[in-house]
Every structure is written in structure tokens, then in C-alpha cells.
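Annotated sample (chain length 383).
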Amino acid sequence: MLAITNATLYTITDGVKQGNILIDDEGRIAGVGDIAIPEGTEVIDAFGKIVMPGMIDAHGHAGVYEEAIGWEGADGNEAVDPITPQLRALDGINPHDEGICEALEAGVTTMCVLPGSANVIGGQGVIIHMYGNTVEDMIIGEGGLKVAFGENPKRVYSGQKKSPSTRMATASLLREQLVKAQNYLAKLEKAKDDPDKAPERDLKMEALVRVLKKEIPLRAHAHRADDIITALRIADEFGVDIIIEHCTEGHKIAEELGNRKVRAVVGPTMTNRSKVEVRERDYSTLRTLWENGVQIAITMDHPVIHVQYLNISAALAVKAGLPREEALKAVTINPARILGIDDRYGSLEEGKLADIVLWSGDPLDIMSRVEQVFIHGKLVYKA
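Output written by the structure step:
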């Protein structure tokens, strides 16, 4: 067993405690707070230090957009066909990408790696640890099916003289594919009683059927308020789960989003106004969404902004009015909840897996540094 003692513990879900955290031999948290340490336990004295769960970025592209390589490492967008639900980010990740290593060193232990937003349907995401020799070593779970609204698909395909070149066409193409998936699913259901009626396997349709059956959500890239509403409209039409990615103009429709209990992965806000639909990016959007009951997580959209600055982005959200405890939740338990992994990750709670970061000081202070990182109780980084 391993114990980290005499620490300030940011549990995230149960306030701040002084004391110890105990990790069992299976890599799970066995106790938090004022607890006794069994004899024979390995001890790390963290007097004056802060311990918190590893940070989670629910939307990034580490490993599929590799650092300092250019087109050779750009594997996030298959921008020759607007409909590619069969693609998997899993198959494009380089686990030795410098971005993954630097994320770990900054206290980010988990990311949902998604395809890019060039296509109307871009492909399937995967949730991974920021540590491992192969992708198989890193996998936590599935990350949903990426779809995109707004400028990106229009820009990519109007340049190729293909559809979509309008927002209308983007919505129409997504609807068409979901209808095809409904028809494919109907054939699969009939084939249960009559195998001769089974359709030929179609990897595109298989991915979309999983969305229709609510096995995975749509991960909808949408910056502008009207694009967010279009994404929600289509989700309602087909009765599917959806998560809004970026949500840059979410403040304009915050009450509507709150009433609908929308989950929003917000950002990257630490960036310039690189295109029209991000003109209103501002950290106050996070506060406004939270005030209206929207479940929020902060993303850096790595490598748009490097994921190592996730804690700084949380600090800037506090500066803009988001309560400190909510900013910490937005980089830990909230992304875990949005990704459906909060039963195992995102807080310091007994029974959860020990993805833990030892900080020299306040994680929201730019002067603090990560001293040690543990994944499943194993030390994987030491400054």
C-alpha cells in the first residue's frame, strides 16, 4: 500500500481536508482524510503540499495532431469525405507524442481524444490516460461520435466544390445519415427472426446505430448560438444524447441550455479570434453557463492551445467570476461526469482509481508546479 500524508487534500466532491490519502495494492483509493496508516505502508510525506485528482480534458487531439511535425503527424481530419463515422481516433494516436508527455507533467492525466471538425461526421473518440507505451495501455473508454456544425465543414468542402457549403447542407447531411442508420437498424431488428434478411455489414451505419441506441453520444462542435440550437434540434428529432463542444456563444442562450440540462465542454478561450464564430470567446461564458445550471467542463482543444495550460485556464475562469470550487470541478469531476467515467475518476473518494497529482502549491497559481503524478496508484512522473 501507499500513503500520501500530511497533505492538503482537494477532494473536489467533499471539500478541502487536511490529512492522508491511502492507496491500496490495486491502485484504488482506500481512505481520505484523518485516517490511520497501516504498518508497513510506503509513505510520502506531503507536508505543505496539495493533492488533488488528475485533471481531465474532455476534448482534445493529443496524439492525432502530433507536435512539431506538420502534415506527417496530422491525423485528425480525413477531409475528403464529409461523412466518416467509421473512423476512430484510436487508430491515429501516437502514444509517444510530446503533447501527451507534457500533459502528464502538467497534471493532466486523462483526455478524450476526438477527430477534428472538418467533416460533418468526423469519427469516434476515445478516452485515454496521458501515459502508456501503446494506446492499448492507455484506453479508459469510448468518447462518442464527433459531428461538426458552423464554419469548418463549410470551409473545407466549399473549397472542394462539394456539399456542404452552407449550414443548411450540414444539418441535412447529418439528418440523412441518421435516417439511413434508422433504416439499417430496422433491418438488423428484422434479421433477429430471419437471419437471411440481415444487411451487409456497413461500418458507417454501425457507428451511427450506436448513437441511435444511446450507447455513445454525439459530440457536437458548435461555437455560434444558432449552430448550438441546430445541434440540439437534430438530437431531439432523433432522440439521441448530445454534448456541445466549444459552446463559445453559449452565454447568449444560457437559460435555454440550462433548462435542457445541456452538457458543455467550453473553450478554448485562451486563444485569439481566429475566425468569425469565435469573436465572442470570453471566460465569463463559463460563469454565465454555470449560473444557469449548465454542466461545464473546460477544454484547451489541444493542440489549439496546449493542454499543459488547463489549470491556468481554470484560474482565468475564476478571475472572470466563476467560483473557485466550480473551476476546479470544471477540470476534474465535471469532465469525468460528461464522459461517463465519474464512477472511477475525477475526485478523491474511497473506491475510486488513484489518479492523483501532488502539487507544490495552489493548482490555480501560475507559480505552482506538479511534483508527482500517479495513475492507478503508480508513480508515472516525478519532477
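Annotation: The chain has two domains: 1-54+346-383, 55-345.
Annotation: The mean pLDDT is 97.
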